[in-house]
Amino acid sequence: MGGSAVASLDRTLAALADPSRRQVVDLLRERPMRAGEIARATGLSPQAMSRHLRVLKAGALIEESHQSPPGFDARVRIYALRAGPMSELKAWLEQTEQLWAEQLTAFKAHLEAGE
C-alpha cells in the first residue's frame, strides 16, 4: 500500500472513529440529505453537524453538491456518500483478514507438526 493510499485510509478511519459520523454515514446510505435533515435525524445541533460534515468531507467519505435531486431546493447543499473511501477500506480489511488467516493457518500447522 503506497503512501497516498495509507494517508487516504487514515483519513477514512479517523472520520469513522466518531459514532455520530458513523450515524451520518448510515443515514446517507439511504439517500442524499440536507445538513438540517441529518442534524434532526441524529439529534445534533446545526453547529455540531457542520463540524462532523467537515470531517467527513475532509475524509472524502461524503460529497456536497448544489445539484438538487427531485424534491430538493437548488439553493440548499445536499450531502451524499462517496463510494471510493469505503471500497478502499473494504479492500484493506480483506487483505488484513487474508494475512491473519494465513498466519493462523501456518501457526496451526506448526502446532500440529510438533505433536
Would you write up a description of this structure?
The protein has 115 residues and is mainly α. It has a domain of 80 residues: Arc Repressor Mutant, subunit A (Orthogonal Bundle). The chain contains 5 helices and 3 strands; from the N terminus they run ααβααββα. It has a 3-stranded antiparallel beta sheet. α3 packs across α4. The chain is elongated.
Observed structural traits:
single chain, 115 residues, mainly alpha, Arc Repressor Mutant, subunit A, 3-stranded antiparallel beta sheet, 3 strands, elongated
TL;DR?
The chain is mainly alpha-helical. It has helices at residues 3-16, 19-30, 35-42, 46-58, 83-113, and strands spanning 33-34, 62-65, 78-81.
Q: Helix and strand layout, with pairings?
A:
Layout: H1 3-16, H2 19-30, E1 33-34, H3 35-42, H4 46-58, E2 62-65, E3 78-81, H5 83-113
Antiparallel strand pairs: 1-3, 2-3
